[in-house]
Design a protein that fits this description.
Layout lengths: L1 H5 L2 H9 L14 H8 L2 H9 L14 H8 L2 H40 L3 H15 L7 H16 L3 H19 L7 H13 L3 H38 L6 H9 L1
């Protein structure tokens, strides 16, 4: 924030390159973009916008970077911020349109598959996957597209085509959730099933093992949560000043 105020372009750029968030709030909940816009630091504004700084953020005093730049008479910065705002709005609209297209393709594939029209379903899923590639490697829509296409191939006995898709879907899920998340069970089970269908039981075994371990982990977590909930309920039923069942048993033991 200090570097943005004082116009230290090199420091700001170094911080951004090191992974500093361009919209990190500071004094009066101002973002670095607001500070640079107020002070007329054009190069810093450009650097922040290049790293994805959001010109639409509103401060606790209902200020935006554009409003602050206008107030300071920094016309060049106002123009930069307006262009960035228009570009962001256009990108958001395009993203929304793309998502609708993806959902339409996935729904059409589902209908075609239910009707046994596997060729049509495959065409729709391939189109959906192509769209999903633009959403990023950790986006759930990419994982869904991969899983659905792999499942279609699996249903038709096309196991060699399903295997790389299931494997990549697992990689996407691991990146998004981490390697120990119980939600990975379905992806692990899918991949293991393909290897079993191919007769590659040695390859399937590690995935079966991981899936089992994650199921057990989820079960232990649910049991612990249930025990805590039960103890809390006992405490509420005992009323203020009265020992609950656990406390009463401990007292009688003494």
């Amino acid at each position: 924030m200090y570097a943005a105020r004082q116009g230290h372009v090199e420091i700001v750029q170094s911080l951004l390159d090191a992974g500093a968030h361009p919209d990190l709030g500071g004094e009066r909940v101002w973002t670095p973009l607001m500070v640079a816009s107020t002070e007329g630091r054009t190069e810093i504004v450009e650097a922040l916008l290049a790293k994805g700084a959001d010109p639409s953020i509103v401060s606790s005093r209902n200020e935006t970077a554009i409003k602050l730049a206008k107030h300071g008479g920094h016309r060049t910065i106002v123009d930069l911020l307006r262009r960035a705002s228009r570009a962001a709005a256009s990108a958001a609209a395009k993203s929304q349109s793309t998502d609708v297209d993806w959902q339409t393709r996935m729904a059409a594939a589902n209908v075609a598959q239910q009707q046994g029209k596997y060729t049509d379903a495959e065409a729709q899923l391939l189109a959906a996957l192509k769209i999903a590639e633009n959403f990023g490697e950790t986006d759930t829509r990419l994982g869904d597209s991969l899983n659905r296409l792999a499942h279609l191939y699996y249903l038709q006995g096309k196991y060699t085509r399903a295997e790389p898709l299931y494997r990549r879907a697992l990689t996407v899920a691991e990146k998004a959730l981490g390697v120990d998340d119980p939600q990975l069970v379905s992806s692990l089970t899918n991949l293991a099933a393909v290897y079993d269908a191919l007769g590659r039981h040695a390859d399937a075994a590690p995935f079966h093992k991981r899936a089992l371990a994650l199921r057990e982990k989820a079960g232990r977590a649910a049991q612990t949560k249930g025990n805590h909930s039960h103890m809390g309920e006992e405490s509420r039923r005992s009323g203020p000043g009265k020992p609950n069942a656990v406390a009463a048993q401990a007292a009688s033991a003494r």
